[in-house]
């Protein structure tokens, strides 16, 4: 119950929680829209975890670079 309240509060405040992000990703995977996934996550202990699905390591690096570019663009668009 607490998790659901936290998710609703985050949505109302315009924040995207890890659970909401993964739920949206899972829906896209189940509908066949996703060919591969790579992730970078920060744990509650502030450790970084990474993983990737059925993509080559060079493709994984390219996807990370694309993600980095999108984050930088979003950062510049905020100002």
Can you walk me through this structure?
By secondary structure, this protein is of the alpha+beta class. It has 2 domains: about 1-35, no CATH class; about 35-79. Helix content is about 60%, strand content about 15%. It contains 3 helices and 2 strands, in the order H-H-E-E-H. Strands 1-2 form a two-stranded antiparallel ribbon. A hairpin with a 5-residue loop joins strand 1 (about 40) and strand 2 (about 50). It is globular. About 0% of the residues are buried.
Secondary structure blueprint with pairings:
Elements: H1 2-12, H2 18-30, E1 38-42, E2 48-52, H3 57-78
Antiparallel strand pairs: 1-2
Terminal residue distance: 37 Å
Strand content: 5-15%
Task: Quote the average pLDDT.
Answer: 89
Strand order of the largest sheet: 1-2
Counting helices, strands and paired strands, the structural category is alpha+beta
| Proportion of helical residues | 55-70%
Give a brief rundown of this model.
With 79 residues, the protein is of the alpha+beta class.
What labels describe this entry?
single chain, 79 residues, 3 helices, globular, two-stranded antiparallel ribbon, 2 strands
